[in-house]
Specification:
The chain is α+β, with helices and mostly antiparallel strands. The protein is built from four helices and seven strands; from the N terminus they run E-H-H-E-E-E-H-E-H-E-E. The longest helix has 14 residues.
Amino acid sequence: MTNNNELHLEKITWDNMDAIINLHVTKEQRNFVASNKDSLADACVRMLHEEKKVFPFGIYLGKKPVGFIMITYDIGEDDGEEPRADWFLRNSYFIWRFMIDRRYQGNGYGRQAMKLALDFIRTFPAGEAKYCWLSYEPKNEVARKLYASFGFEEHPEHYEEGEEMPAILKL
């Protein structure tokens, strides 16, 4: 039984999908992250058509959804274009999406959820990995500081203007 004050991750199911879709960031943050609805559609395509592992979770405070996080494994050459030279893409975990609903920001839930996500990743649910990585809009200082506090290191050599900044954590 989950304590009403305990933050935890729950798998996305038919029963909680709408509640997760209805979570939103602030207006100022909309350019920083895709909607949860779009994220879940991306997860379905990746799982069904690319046969890749994707782990979409609701972030819950007791029984109340407060955020969303989605993790995948080994994105490698998934876009049908030329092979990417980025060494950190293959056989690694990728925190693909992460958000805390605007009503629950500023309470430390993002930090707690990131710890839970990294604990999950370190169980290697899709296979062994040396790295976990994520990317974010360079203007998103809140994200930059949060990720750096967990040991994610920016890799500007893999950044192109107009793209997101990759940050990598050695597991």
